[in-house]
């Protein structure tokens, strides 16, 4: 039997509620269960090149966002040694193909930012630098009608090299920093926080002290929204004379600095995307400051407490000025393009930790009921090495992983199998899923005890 324990930090929302009220049961399960860290998955991560022969031309300093309503990644703009781009592309991760969707809309530009507003089904673009200089336009892309609409020319000052992320809990696009031209010339580093609600821009954190109650002014940083914890995560930047590797989080009211150790090294213009299946923020590449040409090829993951360096095999070549977005339909982080000091890239790469699922060959589940109790038993069958840890999750209402499951870790035995057991007083339609492989679920038909 799996050893039992109580770990409040890892309980599901349902677990916490029932434990605090009852003091005996954890969730709806007599056995103490928890959502285990997916440690084994990080050893099975890798980058894979996707080349369909129809990708956008090589470029850097473009921007991407995942349109979850249509299951595609939207890419706009960027530049190469010959000039700037004003084209709109979409990546379909299911068919692994790029499609050119528009050549009109915002002016050709680079160092702008994109974020997908999932409540209004629009991809929001702000700012950037075009042939006329820095820009303060707000545009929105409707992928259904394949049209761009200019929504605002007021709000944040003209800027480039800023960062944006969509806060799906509060329904706003969050913008921070960049280099603006408010003071003339190329401008100064900016440290303002702004939010776009689809109609108006509103400056937030007015009066916050830079470096204390707000990140210091910066450019080249990146942001991603952690939907599990309800915070926008920020890392990195060029901050003028200051050099730091602080991680900041914005919850809609306050910025909170984090002090993890270890942490990715000093860098800017890297890729950052939130993996909503594994609840981690993935970082790749960038360039350092002390050596401006010190291009990076490392991959890190932030789980809200610690940064963990990964060892994916294979890995992309070192580069900066990349863009990344997480494709939740296909469970992969997608990276496109970049620059390594001598060339611009036009490759599409996908990062995932799901290769472990190729070695999970079976999942069986059954249920017995009697005397007011339901007993669920599951067996996972694999070709994985002995000692590999997987997480099996029971849900009585839906056959998916939505955060309301009772989960427990199982260690694969010498025959490649392992068992999990649950006992519950709650009637439902039991279903068991492998947390590391979200698509691998089995219903557990119930029959009476003999």
What can you tell me about this protein's structure?
The protein has 2 domains: 8-39 and 357-448, Immunoglobulin-like; 46-353, Kelch-type beta propeller (Neuraminidase, 6 Propeller), CATH 2.120.10.80. A 4-stranded antiparallel sheet has the order 1-31-30-29, with no helix packed on it. A 4-stranded antiparallel sheet has the order 2-3-6-7, with no helix packed on it. With 450 residues, the chain is mainly beta. It is elongated.
Briefly say what this structure is:
With 450 residues, this protein is mainly beta. The chain has two helices and 39 strands.
CATH superfamily of the largest domain: Kelch-type beta propeller
Q: Number of DSSP helices?
A: 2
Poorly predicted parts: 1-43
* Largest beta-sheet details: 4 strands, antiparallel
Into how many domains do the coordinates divide?
2
SSE class: mainly beta
Helix content: under 10%
Relative strand content: 35-45%
CATH architecture of the largest domain: 6 Propeller
Notable features of this structure?
mainly beta, Immunoglobulin-like, Neuraminidase, 2 domains, four-stranded antiparallel beta sheet, 2 helices, 43% strand, elongated, disordered N terminus
